[in-house]
Amino acid sequence: MSVATDTGYSPPKRGSFLDALAPGGKRAFFLLSVLGVLLIFAFPVFWLVLTSMRPAWGVYYVHRGLEFTLGNYLEVLEQEVVVHAFFNSFVIATLSTFFSLTVTVTSGYMLSRFTGKLANAWFGTIYIFRTIPYITWVLPLYFVTQWWGIFDSYLGLLLPHIAVHICFFSWLMKGFFDGIDPSMESAALIDGCTRWGAFLRVALPSALPGIAALSILCWLWTWNEFLFALILTSHNTPMITVVMAQFVSELGTEWNLMSATAVMAMVPALIVAIFGQKYVVRGLKV
């Protein structure tokens, strides 16, 4: 019999770090944590917005003076290449999301519900391609797009984005379908549904939160992607992430115009993130 049982003594339970703080310590710790997060994430955005509204001579003294202007935004929008780049980025992000999910949803369902040589081969294929850093794809993709005659075109950009999305998001879709009870599909099959009918009528509606979350992540990733846009495009299909770099020249960097372009590029992504946040949270809980 242990000493604790003989004496009636039980050792105190180990508390958390917050329990050891003084009465006002928890509030102070919370405020300091929020302040630290804001400094790390929000302050750079705040500084970027201030820089975008400063005249060219004042970008190195953002914290001094009260000379602010919206002329930087007007000057950027007057450049046709910037407007064209915004349109191209929106089209590429939307199309790549649509076509990626068309393949990814069925791919994730196959990996979740089927076994055999075909499923194992497909899983091994996307696993191998996912483990290879996609920066190593750039040079082969450049030669392939040149050979096929699709360099600097929508198709030349869509194919690499779709490939990357399929390799990564198929795993996530598999996890979503794993969380759905397959007995409902079995009941549909007994009632006379085909496998495709059970997928479309039972599994797909149940996975809609996950699909919505993946669509938002796909769109944001494509909108912010830089490497493929830099290597696989030129003058015909400019992308907004690449156009920002045009403000860097041998004469210097036009920080005010670059910042204005960056702020405008954040707006669509911010809108998608704000309105899609609940779908992302709900989808990741499936």
Please describe what this structure looks like.
With 286 residues, this protein is an all-alpha fold. Helices cover 70% and strands 1% of the residues. The chain contains 13 helices and 2 strands. It has helices at 3-7, 25-52, 71-77, 80-113, 117-131, 138-148, 154-178, 183-190, 195-206, 208-224, 227-231, 240-243, 255-284, and strands spanning 248-249, 252-253. The protein has a two-stranded antiparallel ribbon with strand order 1-2. Helix 4 (80-113) runs parallel beside helix 7. The mean pLDDT is 82.
Bin the helical content. over 70%
Measured on Cα atoms, how large is the radius of gyration?
26 Å
Seen as an oligomer or otherwise, the chain set is single chain
Q: What structural class results from the helix and strand content?
A: mainly alpha
- Beta-strand portion reads under 5%
What is the H/E order?
HHHHHHHHHHHHEEH
The unreliable regions are none
Number of strands: 2
Shape: globular
Tell me about the largest β-sheet: 2 strands, antiparallel
Average pLDDT metric: 82
